[in-house]
Amino acid sequence: MQSPREPKIPPEVPKAGSRSKLVKVQRAHETCCAKTNQDFNTEDNFNLVIPGAFPSSPPLSPRLAPLERDESVPVSAFQQMDIDIAESPELPTELGSHLHPRRPAKFVSASASAPRRTRRPSTPRTPIRRPAAQDDMAIDDPWNRQASLFERLPFGRPVSAVQLFSPKPRPIPANRIASIYATEWEKRARESAALEGEPGRTVRIVPQGPAVRELSWDWMNQIKRAMKAPQSMPVAKSISGDALYQRDIATCINHQAWLNDEIINSYLGILIHYLRESTGNLNDKPLFHAFNTFFFSTLRDKGYQGVRRWANRAKIGGEGLLDVDTVFIPVHGGAHWTLMVVRPMERTIEYLDSMGSRGANQVKKVKEWLRGELGMKYDEDEWTVLKSNSSMQDNGSDCGVFLLTNAKAIALGVEPTAFGASDTILLRRKIVAEIMNGGLNGEFSPINKEGLLQL
């Protein structure tokens, strides 16, 4: 690297004199300084190392020596490599402009930035086809294949090819988790199948059409007049002759009220009277009986000794209990009504709860009563607890309505799940109307004009 040249100084500087001489001296000095700067800023002095300054910029990009043509290589080979050696004898490198960001653009070789003329190959290149990636996580779902096949088929298919419903649950495809809904429906289907084939179960029917019969306008008006009566005025009588007041039926008409004990006891008495009357059992030893609402609470609190005489007073006590067809036991748990059905002839126990409970503790108490009543005749292995299903209530006030309607359904041989929560308003009015009517006769006969069974 060459050392910087020393600036040239004019040989003589005239002393201060006339104005013209001073101007000439200044012009000569400026000319000398300009020439000195021009010589100093040459390409040779650009990379001058100045002590303490920023590291110098990299040198200019080196130029490669002219490439000599190899006679052993044909010209067509150079053309296939996109290199025209005749047009570009020199290949300047383009790395210099990228080595340092401070390098001025004016020092980049013009030949490096100029576009190169190349000869394109005459034959087009064939794109390489890459094999499609195989998805190892793909699920072979027969349901989706069936759906895609259904979309491709025309709508003019024969009727035999149309599947309206699946009577049995379809198998779940591999690698798929069943939803909680499918699992629940399969569980209910298994329970229903087990209930149908359970020994000792009475066959019950589901009414065709609406399970609950509508109430006539005449009875609707009678219920309205009874509701307008004073609270202390009797508006109906039970089968045993006890008076029912307006405040009693109001607990059944009001949609958000709990049924009181008088309504429940009176309606169960109507059902027992219908069963004994329809079977000709009015004057003989009773085949049907319903305990009042205090029986189970006394049994729960005092044990068998608290209810030891209840069955004897109803003429079904002792070993004679095994000759009774049906015994209804209303169960009150403090804020919820349920129903216990005991069939001594069939040795079965049913517990119906509109909240879905199986009532293990309640069943245990009833078995305690049976053991105390039958004595040596009681064999626990002979008794079967049936897993009966009840319709579900959708509020906290209709449990008493479900208790009475479940008892009526069992008395008539109707499946308790035939009605639902949407029928409770009508059922409340019918309970009051049937109590005021004095039984299930006349307009409230279970068999309608078409000969169909309805609640």
UniProtKB/TrEMBL annotation:
Residues 1-21, 106-134 are annotated as: Disordered. SUPFAM superfamilies: Cysteine proteinases. InterPro entries: Papain-like_cys_pep_sf, Peptidase_C48_C. Keywords: Hydrolase, Protease, Thiol protease. Signal peptide: none annotated. Residues 242-410 form the Ubiquitin-like protease family profile domain. One of its GO terms (molecular function) is deSUMOylase activity. One of its GO terms (biological process) is proteolysis. One of its GO terms (cellular component) is nucleus. Belongs to the peptidase C48 family. This is Ubiquitin-like protease family profile domain-containing protein. It comes from Penicillium atrosanguineum. The lineage of its organism: Eukaryota, Fungi, Dikarya, Ascomycota, Pezizomycotina.
